[in-house]
Amino acid sequence: MEDDIETVLWSSDEISKRVIELADQLNHDLSASSTQLPVFVGVATGAFVFLADLVRRISLPVSVDFVRVSSYGFGTLSNGSPSISSDLKLDVIDKHVVLVEDIVDTGNTLSKLIEYLKSKGASSVSVCTFLDKPSRRKVSIELVGKGKFYGGFECPDKFVVGYGMDFAEVYRNLPYVGILKPRCYQGIKEERPKN
Ligand code: 5GP
Ligand code: MG
Ligand code: MG
């Protein structure tokens, strides 16, 4: 698995430090605002590692839930019309939701999810994404209520794996984030984005 990585972008130590900084900001903002318990909603599967690290640094009581969105399949290109394939278990009416993502690329997935959480009655929606690829944004992210945007690292326009992120469902368990070697894409039919 390690042999498939061309470049490590963020090491495990760098990630840990950044996660603590993000959690500190969230601790500060959440304690200043809400009386209701915030709900952290992870976008499965990619956000599971980040969500687990993040919530363990949150010092207030929070609830945790997941949604699943289908758009990527086994390739590297989004089909542009994500659909919610696994619903929330928790009720988010009048709740502050912190939507936790692995990476924001075109913004299609997040926009869809924010609309959805709004329609479920969330009073505000913040976004906390581990990585952000602003250069590839097609849809702007419209937060709800007093929601804020928290971003871990700005990612170059490369397809990355590790720390929860996959290629064809592999590499999620790498403790760092890296760029895959080109030979790893061979045999996969779907075209990958130009890097
Ligand atoms: P968007 O809807 O913003 O275009 O895509 C968001 C989703 O696409 C992310 O949640 C992630 O699952 C996937 N994605 C986008 N860029 C990358 C990448 O570089 N690596 C991996 N592994 N997944 C990505
Ligand atoms: Mg994701
Ligand atoms: Mg994926």
From TrEMBL:
Cofactor(s) needed for function: Mg(2+)
InterPro entries listed in its UniProt record: HGPRT, Hxn_phspho_trans, PRTase-like, PRTase_dom
Reactions catalysed, as given in the entry: IMP + diphosphate = hypoxanthine + 5-phospho-alpha-D-ribose 1-diphosphate
Pathway of action: Purine metabolism; IMP biosynthesis via salvage pathway; IMP from hypoxanthine: step 1/1
Residues of the Phosphoribosyltransferase domain: 14-167
GO terms for MF: hypoxanthine phosphoribosyltransferase activity; magnesium ion binding; nucleotide binding
EC number: 2.4.2.8
SUPFAM superfamilies named among the record's database cross-references: PRTase-like (SSF53271)
Domain of life: Eukaryota
Any single Pfam family the record assigns to this protein: Pribosyltran
GO biological process terms, semicolon-separated: GMP salvage; guanine salvage; hypoxanthine metabolic process; IMP salvage; purine ribonucleoside salvage
Presence of keyword Nucleotide-binding: yes
Compartments in which it is found: Cytoplasm
Principal EC category: transferase
Cellular component, GO annotation: cytosol
Coiled-coil segments on the chain, per record: none
Keyword tags: Cytoplasm, Glycosyltransferase, Magnesium, Metal-binding, Nucleotide-binding, Purine salvage, Transferase
The family this protein is said to belong to: Belongs to the purine/pyrimidine phosphoribosyltransferase family.
Name this protein carries in UniProt: Hypoxanthine phosphoribosyltransferase
Organism field: Spinacia oleracea (Spinach)
